[in-house]
Design brief:
- This protein has three domains: 150 residues, Rossmann fold (3-Layer(aba) Sandwich); 37 residues, no CATH class; 117 residues.
- The protein is built from 16 helices and nine strands.
- Bound molecules: adenosine-5'-diphosphate and magnesium ion.
- The site of adenosine-5'-diphosphate has 18 residues, from helix 3, helix 10 and helix 12.
Length: 317
């Protein structure tokens, strides 16, 4: 493996992010090629965390732009501090300052409110990590504007002139794929798809993030998750839910999965009313009763057989 990729993998693992080869390679290339990375995947698979981990591994600032429907350029880039400008005008009333001088004063840096994109571009010290989170929730119009910013890393403010990035930020965009992003944006980025973790990866994530958890419980939770993700649910649990559940089990001093404890902690990882109703009772029993004693066996064979039984169980309802 290329030395640089291995180093990034180690850096991210040191920040407690379980990193596979694909993720490390993309992070490495993004830095080498100075290209933004677009990370797609279901909710809770570890997309946002990558930006956080990168910034702490690099010892650089994390600047986050959370996208939502209706997000506009002002909120993302800059705004003038209107109340402060008004105050200044009031204070200057009666002074003999010319209109031009006054205008220059109130449209200067001191009256500028830098929003995330401008902050990321105007960093003086070193390149920050710019996280543009859940970009699929913003409108297409905003996406087009982003494209512009990401292509030249410069912004023109009519009253001030053009601000060009001295240190090009490391850009991470994430998307939950609620809509397809434009080809133009994708073309500008390196692409990383993060899937739900494999059994081995999820065990590692649990033992890394929930220190002190016993191995058997970690294995059982990871097995359970592998199986439950094959069931058609309104909201399939991601890694965030796995960790919440593992911590809940620890808080209840449970060292393995059993019916009652699972039923009581269902809300830690199933967060939809219909899904709870679907799983309650027999399906949970099928899952858990077939699990005990299977920890050392072939996990994928177990997942296959138990999901078949679950499907049968659910289809008879
Ligand atoms: N590979 C991983 N290693 C360690 N923790 C992870 C990993 N993947 C996900 N997590 C954890 O799962 C949770 C959800 O991750 P997050 O990045 O918020 O998901 P997303 O942005 O994809 O919805 C976080 O607490 C994160 O630390
Ligand atoms: Mg996220």
């Amino acid at each position: 493996m290329i030395e640089g990729i291995r180093r990034i993998q180690e850096m991210m693992e040191r920040e407690q992010y379980v990193t596979d080869r694909g993720i490390a390679t993309t992070a490495y290339l993004a830095m080498e090629l100075k290209k933004p990375v677009l990370i797609e995947g279901q909710a809770g698979v570890g997309k946002t965390e990558i930006a956080k981990v990168l910034s702490s591994a690099l010892g650089t600032e994390l600047i986050r732009l959370q996208c939502y429907e209706g997000l506009d350029v002002n909120t993302a880039l800059y705004e003038w501090n209107y109340p402060k400008q008004m105050l200044r005008i009031k204070m200057d009333e009666g002074s003999r300052r010319g209109i031009d001088a006054q205008e220059q004063a109130i449209f200067s840096d001191a009256f500028l409110l830098k929003r995330p994109l401008l902050q990321a571009i105007s960093g003086q010290e070193q390149a920050p990590v710019l996280l543009i989170d859940e970009v699929d929730r913003a409108d297409e119009e905003f996406e087009a504007f982003l494209l512009e910013v990401l292509s030249d890393f410069q912004v023109t403010i009519p009253e001030l002139g053009t601000i060009r990035a001295q240190h090009r930020p490391y850009v991470v965009l994430t998307s939950n794929r609620t809509r397809e992003l434009s080809d133009a944006l994708k073309r500008r980025c390196l692409y990383l798809w993060i899937d739900f973790p494999t059994f081995d990866k999820e065990v590692r994530i649990i033992t890394t993030k929930v220190p002190g958890i016993n191995e058997r419980l970690a294995h059982q939770i990871a097995m359970f998750m592998q199986a439950i993700r094959h069931v058609k649910l309104n909201k399939t649990p991601g890694v965030a839910e796995t960790l919440d559940w593992a911590m809940s089990m620890m808080a209840l001093h449970q060292d393995h999965l059993e019916q009652d404890a699972v039923r009581e902690t269902l809300g830690a990882f199933i967060k939809d009313r219909d899904d709870v109703a679907k799983l309650r009772g027999q399906p949970l029993e099928v899952l858990i009763s077939s699990m005990n004693g299977q920890e050392e066996e072939d996990v994928s064979a177990w997942v296959q057989s138990v999901t078949q039984r679950l499907e049968k169980e659910l289809s008879t309802r």
